[in-house]
Design brief:
This is Polysaccharide biosynthesis protein. It is found in: Cell membrane. It is a multi-pass membrane protein. Helix 1 packs parallel to helix 6, helix 2 packs across helix 9 and helix 6 runs antiparallel to helix 7. This protein starts with 8 loop residues before the first helix and ends with a helix. The chain is mainly alpha-helical. It contains 14 helices and no strands. It has one domain.
Length: 427
């Protein structure tokens, strides 16, 4: 049927880029709404909620969407992925409640964190349906879902903050928006792909096997999320929620390039995986080099714009007090440029199914970030946070490059061995 027919890479990218563009713009728009209608402290509370909830769900998600999308040999059913995701999401909500209780935040901050956690739980369930559509190379439906979620979340969060003057009601709007998208569109999309209502399957041996296989990626994604949020924890601890709000608002401008990276990476992942499984090292390397080349172009463009117009951009988008941190903006764009290259290399590593090495890499980067943040933020303040991020991002890119080179050499060796064996068996 037409509804389940795969799209070309170009069309998948176009749809994914459009969906991510609108979604990212709306996510950034939420920060703008909080900055314009509220204060840096309000932005700080919302950002803290994301910083607490995101690493938890990055771990409990086990990166099942990517595992599913790159499951070129169809080892598991969608029902297995859905069943494991529902269990893990419930555990994630419990973990966030425990963290919030132990941390002893004030009641409003605690409520914001819990509500953000609920929103992320709903997002996690939508994400597993995205994995099915990504595997079927129907990124158009994922893109439409992102557009619905982005526009609804911006509208309802803005309405909640405007009517109440409180960030709590804004986050309630976010929960409602993501629930509506899940129930009215995401589940329906899976029905169109499978031609039936998908139900979770809880086969113990299968769930244990899938969990064990995906666990390294769960640790990796948790550590990656921690790596982006570790500076935020230290900023909140040493400098307060106001400075955290300013840092988070400026740092979010890095997302302009990230949406292109994610769009291309998600669209290219199934093809990269198929190339690697088929032993087509030339196609795998060629596609990956094209992605890295685009990353260089994106990073260079962002850095150039930040150098020539940082003050005007920050004043226009936020408030004049944010424009006092132009140097911070420029250095964050340097971090972003290196991060784009590292991300595309990471997509190649994942497509080649090098999961466990990513866990060790991310743990190492986390340790580096903890040490540098503890050392630099108390003395250099926000600039110290950027320097810590820069050091970690460079090291991450170097490690990803090394693993990519190793994966390609292994593929080349396999091809040479297969060719030698075939030649030997010739009559």
């Amino acid at each position: 049927m037409q509804e389940s027919k795969p799209l070309t890479l170009r069309r998948n990218f176009s749809w994914t880029f459009a969906g991510n563009f609108i979604y990212a713009a709306c996510q950034w728009g939420m920060l703008v709404v909080l900055a314009k209608l509220g204060s840096p402290e309000m932005v700080g509370k919302f950002t803290l909620g994301l910083a607490v909830a995101a690493p938890v769900f990055m771990f409990t998600n086990l990166q099942l969407r990517t595992v599913q999308a790159t499951d070129a040999q169809q080892q598991y059913l969608f029902s297995d992925y859905l069943g494991l995701r529902l269990i893990a999401t419930g555990l994630g909500l419990v973990a966030i409640a425990i963290i919030t209780f132990v941390a002893s935040y004030d009641w409003e901050t605690s409520l914001v964190i819990l509500l953000v956690g609920l929103a992320k739980a709903i997002e996690s369930i939508s994400d597993i349906y995205y994995g099915l559509l990504q595997q079927q190379e129907r990124m158009d439906r994922n893109a439409i879902s992102l557009m619905i979620k982005g526009l609804l979340s911006l509208l309802l969060l803005g309405l909640g903050v405007y009517l109440s003057g409180n960030v709590v009601w804004g986050v309630v709007g976010l929960v409602i928006a993501w629930t509506v998208a899940l129930l009215t569109y995401d589940i329906r999309s899976s029905v169109l792909m499978l031609h039936q209502m998908p139900l979770p399957r809880w086969h113990l041996r299968t769930l244990v096997k899938l969990t064990w296989f995906s666990l390294p990626l769960g640790f990796v994604m948790m550590l990656i999320s921690l790596n982006s949020n570790i500076p935020r924890y230290f900023i909140e601890q040493y400098l307060g929620k106001r400075e955290l709000g300013i840092f988070a608002a400026i740092a979010y401008l890095m997302v302009a390039g990230n949406m292109v990276v994610f769009a291309l990476g998600d669209s290219a992942s199934p093809k990269l995986a198929k190339y690697y499984v088929a032993g087509n090292s030339i196609a795998f390397r060629t596609l990956l080099l094209k992605l890295v080349g685009l990353a260089v172009l994106l990073g260079g463009t962002g850095l150039f714009v930040s150098v020539i117009a940082s003050r005007q951009i920050l004043t226009l988008l936020y408030q004049p007090e944010y424009a006092q941190h132009t140097n911070l903006f420029v250095w964050l764009m340097v971090v972003a440029a290196i991060g784009y290259i590292s991300s595309f290399l990471g997509y190649g590593i994942t497509a080649a199914r090098y999961f466990r090495i990513q866990m060790h890499r991310s743990a190492f980067i986390s340790i580096i970030l903890l040490i540098t943040c503890l050392w630099l933020i108390p003395t250099l303040k926000l600039q110290g946070a950027v320097i810590a991020l820069l050091i970690a991002t460079v090291m991450n890119a170097v490690i990803n490059l090394g693993v990519t080179i190793h994966a390609l050499s292994q593929l080349k060796n396999q091809n040479n061995n297969a060719h030698a064996l075939a030649t030997k068996n010739l009559p």
